[in-house]
C-alpha cells in the first residue's frame, strides 16, 4: 500500500497484519482520485472508517488542506496515526477515536469531501448520510465518496444528496454523491 500521487508520491504506508482492516486497493483508489481531482485543492476532508488512513493521506498528498480521520478500532486508529507520522502530516491531520456517531459529532468544521468506507456487512451508509445532514457537516458543492459491496446498490438520492457517479470494480462499487440542489430548494 502506497501513496499514488502528489507530494508524498511513492511513500509506503503501514498495512494491517490481518484481514480485519480492508484498505482500498491502489486500482480503486486511483480511479476514485481521478474522479474527484477537481474537489481536492484546499479541501477539508473527513476519512470516516479510516482503517489505515490510506484515502485521507492520499487526499492530503494531492492538495487537501486538512483531514479528519475517524475509526472506532484502536488498532486502526494507531495504524492511521503511524501513517500520518510517516507522511509527516500531524499538523494537517485530526484524529477521533470512536464509532461513526462519535466521530461525526466531534468534527468542528464543515467538509468539502467525505470518504465513507464502512464495514460492508453493517449497513451504516444511510445512517451516516442522515447524521452528516443532521449535523450540517458538508459545505455547499461538497461530495461524499462511498465505497460499498457491489451486491448492495445504493439509492440515487440519500438525505438531500444525489448520486452523480457510479463505478464498479469486481465486487466493489464506488458512488459519488453531491448535495441535490433540486431537492434542497423544493
Mean pLDDT across residues: 90
SSE sequence, one letter per element: HEHEHEHEHEEEEH
Strands side by side in the biggest sheet:
3-2-1-4-5-8-7-6
Q: Fraction of residues in helices?
A: 25-40%
Query: So what's the overall shape?
Result: globular
User: In terms of structural class, how would the helical and strand content be classed?
Assistant: alpha/beta
Outline the low-pLDDT stretches: 182-186
CATH architectural name of the domain at 26-139: 3-Layer(aba) Sandwich
Number of strands: 8
Number of helices: 6
Please give the largest β-sheet. 8 strands, mixed
Tell me the name of the CATH homologous superfamily of the domain at 26-139: Vaccinia Virus protein VP39
> CATH class of the domain at 26-139, please?
Alpha Beta
At the third CATH level, what is the topology name of the domain at 26-139? Answer: Rossmann fold
What fraction of residues sit in β-strands?
Answer: 25-35%
- The radius of gyration over CA amounts to 15 Å
How far is the first residue's CA from the last residue's CA? Answer: 44 Å
Amino acid at each position: 500500500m502506497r501513496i499514488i500521487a502528489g507530494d508524498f508520491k511513492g511513500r509506503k504506508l503501514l498495512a494491517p497484519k490481518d484481514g480485519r482492516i480492508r484498505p482500498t486497493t491502489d486500482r480503486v483508489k486511483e480511479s476514485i482520485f481521478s474522479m474527484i481531482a477537481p474537489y481536492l485543492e484546499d479541501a477539508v476532508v473527513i476519512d470516516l472508517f479510516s482503517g489505515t488512513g490510506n484515502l485521507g493521506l492520499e487526499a492530503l498528498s494531492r492538495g487537501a488542506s486538512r483531514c479528519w480521520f475517524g475509526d472506532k478500532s484502536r488498532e486502526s486508529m494507531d495504524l492511521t496515526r503511524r501513517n500520518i507520522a510517516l507522511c509527516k502530516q500531524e499538523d494537517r491531520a485530526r484524529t477521533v477515536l470512536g464509532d461513526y456517531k462519535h466521530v461525526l459529532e466531534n468534527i468542528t468544521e464543515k467538509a468539502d469531501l467525505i470518504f465513507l468506507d464502512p464495514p460492508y456487512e453493517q449497513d451504516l451508509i444511510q445512517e451516516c448520510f442522515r447524521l452528516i445532514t443532521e449535523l450540517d457537516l458538508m459545505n455547499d458543492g461538497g461530495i461524499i465518496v462511498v465505497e460499498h459491496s457491489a451486491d448492495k446498490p445504493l439509492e440515487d438520492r440519500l438525505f438531500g444528496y444525489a448520486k452523480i457517479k457510479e463505478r464498479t470494480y469486481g465486487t466493489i462499487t464506488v458512488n459519488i454523491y453531491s448535495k441535490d440542489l433540486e431537492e434542497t430548494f423544493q
